[in-house]
Amino acid sequence: ILSLACSPSGASFVCSAAAQSPMSHMDFSAVSSGGKSMNQVPGKLLLWDTKTMKQQLQFSLEPEPIAINCTAFNHNGNLLVTGAADGIVRLFDMQQHECAMSWKAHGGEVYSVEFSYDENTVYSIGGDGKFIQWNIHKSGLKVSEYDLPSEATGPFVLSGYSGYKQVQFPRGRLFAFDSEGNYMLTCSSTGGVIFKLNGEEKVLESCLSLGGHRAPVVTVDWSTAMDCGTCLTASMDGKIKLTTLLAQKS
Description:
mainly beta, Methylamine Dehydrogenase, Chain H
């Protein structure tokens, strides 16, 4: 199971699954020599009913069945955005249960996708180290593109004694937004990092480093309920850190 996402209505959920590849236990030499991660295998995207726990349908994945790495619904569950191992972002109409549009988003796998605050765009992070904003009304139209450090996009590397390296490919959310979509939390080698999204200048401005981890952070989340922000960061050594950000009153 690569990804789960519950519809906002709670009536159904999507599940993406793929066959286990022989390369799942990968050594670092395979990565550094340009080896692919384990997801270049056939995959399925399924819709399940939460009450009956029965499969409702299997989505068609064109041009070929491929591992879907990440899934996210919009606020009312009418749209589902997915990112896949073939570098393609697919946008599904959940009323018709079919792919409304798809485009090649990254030169490598798509690791994480999210809708923007206004839901006119989606953001994606890929194995090419790019963080890209896409217009969902015009297929493949790029709104902005940023380069992220490798520690934010993976693969994540934990170095040990005598040259031992443990490598982990992304398996969860790599970025999360605050309640109004002005700031973004990402992974780093020592903790979470918060960037300000500056649309006019097309730059990511680093605002705050949360720190507190001794191993690379591999997934993050951010809740901004009740006037303060709660940032969750989780690292390769199994540690989870919860950071509370107090709101600044103007």
